[in-house]
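Subject line: Sequence and fold of a protein, written as structure tokens
Area: Proteins and the way their chains fold up in space.
Start of record: The labelled sequence and token lines come straight after this line.
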Amino acid sequence: MAHYFENDKNLKTDRHEIHFSIDGKTFLMMSDAGVFSKDKLDTGTSILLESVLKNSQPAKHVLDLGCGIGPVGVVLGTFWNCEVTGIDVNERACALALQNYKNNHVQGQVLCQDGVTAGEFDCILLNPPIRAGKEVIYRLFEQSAAHLTKNGALWIVMRKQHGAQSAVNFLQDTLHLKTERLNRDKGFWIIKAFRKEN
């Protein structure tokens, strides 16, 4: 079985449109086989986006870490008119994300790589790749913390049963970030992490 965080060169293409609504606005995006949540906007990302739009001021530089086909960048780029960077290891997803940015008139770039290696961001959003394992997820937390601006925030969506409380403990105790749980819905926690001096 192919996972969305792997690249399967032999996987047949099945391009199709998906539609979803966030905060009263409907979005159209292209999707394909072999990408995360290929047929719809997943519940966790939907809750994350609604929570960020409700609880955050618009940011200038947004990083969508593990961007998939780019729904987070498309939505925040549309509402905030911000500069978006998407990062993912899945080559097919990256190509789709870039296309979706362009089709939705969002200013952004997509980097096909494993994790954050450069740049500073006011807002980083992460729906962790649970199946990739705890070691990978916590490395993404560490990289995100290192690439936040002084007043920036990392937003994470995680199911309680997938270790949300352990993630909070790691963010607080190991990375020395302050955390707030700003929403809890359908088993998902929305966690905001930022520097303690903020």
